[in-house]
Design a protein that fits this description.
There is one protein chain. Helices cover 14% and strands 51% of the residues. The protein has one helix and eight strands. Strands 1-2-3-4-5-6-7-8 form an eight-stranded antiparallel barrel.
């Protein structure tokens, strides 16, 4: 019993120190246009996420597409973004891209989605995509 209370206290302490050490935590909301290279105008989807400042100009976070179920963990530098996550089918996908801040917290992002480890149902990978996001950080 004593060991259990010590381990619980230790876990709570680690969580508390993690939140204290982390910089600013800010929620994000974005409108994402997937596969903008095709000739059709893509339907935008809503993206919700959180990002944490982990260093000087370096952010880490998580975001999720409400409509398709895509989710990813990302690291955001001043010059670009690297992310890894899963698509709606639970298959891995990787993103690499850049972003530009227009006004205060309004950001435009361009991501290249690498789908080489996915399966389109016929044994071939899904095609890679280029997507554009318009987002606001609070």
């Amino acid at each position: 019993m004593k060991m259990r209370s010590i381990s619980t206290l230790l876990v709570k302490g680690i969580v508390l120190v993690s939140f204290i050490y982390a910089g600013s935590v800010s929620p994000m909301i974005s409108m994402r246009f997937s596969d903008v290279v095709t000739n059709t105008i893509p339907t935008p989807s809503t993206i919700l996420g959180l990002q944490i400042e982990v260093g000087d100009g370096v952010y880490a976070g998580v975001d999720s597409d409400i409509a398709t179920g895509d989710s990813r963990l990302f690291v955001n530098f001043s010059y670009g973004t690297f992310g890894m996550g899963t698509n709606g089918d639970g298959e891995p996908q990787f993103t690499i891209g850049g972003h530009y801040s227009l006004i205060n917290n309004f950001k435009v992002s361009l991501d290249y989605v690498i789908n080489q480890l996915t399966d389109d149902g016929a044994g071939a990978p899904d095609p890679n995509q280029l997507r554009v996001s318009l987002g606001v950080n609070f």
